[in-house]
Sequence to fold (69 residues):
Amino acid sequence: MKDRYVVAECPRCHTLLVADARYKSKTCPKCNARIPLDELKVIRTARDSREARMILSEAKARRGGSDQR
Fold:
């Protein structure tokens, strides 16, 4: 089964986010930019939303809990 979710970084504000790979774009929850999925910097993929949220949480913790670089 193909991974359905993408954990990625917004190219504009660098916020980490989860995107559903079935759609062509994602709106960043922080800067409200509409970003085509192929422009997102993919960190990892996940089979389901639970796995994606776990990956997102771990990635944010590695950043020190901040969405900013």
Q: What stands out?
A: The CA atoms of residues 7 and 44 lie 5 Å apart. The chain has one domain: 5-62.
